[in-house]
Amino acid sequence: MLDIYGEELISRYEHPHEKGKLDNASISMHEENVSCGDTITIYLKIKDGRVEDAKFDGNGCIISMGSADLLLEEIKGKSLSEIEKMGKEDLFKIIGIEPGPARLHCATLSLRALKKAVLAFENKEVDRETKEL
C-alpha cells in the first residue's frame, strides 16, 4: 500500500525534521483540508526578507505531513518573493511525487499555508492561485 508514496515522503512522515512550534515566529498560518480532516499550522521566522527558520504542527496523512516537512526544509534561506512564486510543480519536485487528483489537496496543504503566511506577513492579498492550491 505504501509503495505509491515516495520513500522520502514516508520517512519524513515517520521521522519529521521540521515538526514543532516556533515561539518566536514572525508569523503563523493555520490551514485545513476539509475534505479529509488534515490540519496544519506553519510557523515562520523571517529576517531581512528571508525565511530564517520554519516549523509546522498538525495532523494528517503521509502526503500532507511528509510534504510539509520536506517543503519547510527546502524554503529555509529563501526570499519571500521566491516563495510567493512557488506553485504545485515546484512542490512536486521537492516531494518527489505527483499525487493524483484525489490526493492533490493533501500535498498542497502546506504550500497553501506557507504562501498565505508570506502574503499576510507582507500585507498582500491572497491571490487566486494560492487560494486554489
Provide a descriptive summary of the structure in words.
- By secondary structure, the chain is of the alpha+beta class.
- It has a single domain (2-131), classed as Sufe protein. Chain: A (Alpha-Beta Complex), CATH 3.90.1010.
- The chain has helices at residues 7-14, 62-75, 80-85, 88-95, 104-121, 128-131; strands at residues 27-33, 38-47, 50-59.
- The protein has a three-stranded antiparallel β-sheet with strand order 1-2-3, with helices on one face.
- It is globular and about 35 Å long.
Unreliable stretches (pLDDT < 50, length at least 5) are none
The averaged pLDDT comes out at 93
CATH topology: Sufe protein. Chain: A
Main beta sheet: 3 strands, antiparallel
Label the structural class. Answer: alpha+beta
From the 3D coordinates, which CATH architecture would you assign?
Alpha-Beta Complex
Query: What's the shape?
Result: globular
Question: What is the gist of this entry?
Answer:
The chain is an alpha+beta fold and 133 residues long.
Sum up the structure in keywords:
three-stranded antiparallel sheet, 133 residues, globular, 44% helix, alpha+beta, single chain, 3 strands, Sufe protein. Chain: A
Tell me the layout of helices and strands.
Blueprint: H1 7-14, E1 27-33, E2 38-47, E3 50-59, H2 62-75, H3 80-85, H4 88-95, H5 104-121, H6 128-131
Antiparallel strand pairs: 1-2, 2-3
